[in-house]
Design brief:
The protein is mostly helical and 81 residues long. 60% of the residues lie in helices and 0% in strands.
């Protein structure tokens, strides 16, 4: 998969997740429901895509921490629930 295709695919996953999240927030959360599982598969697809894109580009989260020392060493941005 080349860089532009993987980025386009991730944008598509992000758009799907954002649409779901915004609907959930408006229609459920603001009305008292905190069950966010309705969008969980879309979030997994999006974060998985980002992780793969990072891997393809040799982006290592440890390097990010070196340049952003305020990020906790235990922070896992894509850790599944």
């Amino acid at each position: 998969m080349n860089d532009s295709n993987s980025m386009d695919e991730c944008k598509s996953f992000k758009k799907q997740y954002d649409t779901c999240f915004n609907a959930w927030f408006r229609d459920k959360f603001l009305k008292g429901s905190n069950d966010d599982s309705v969008c969980s598969e879309l979030l997994k697809n999006y974060t998985g895509c980002v992780k793969n894109a990072m891997k393809e580009k040799d982006i290592v989260i440890g390097e990010f921490r070196r340049y952003h020392p305020k990020v906790s060493p235990n922070y896992e941005p894509f850790k599944n629930k």
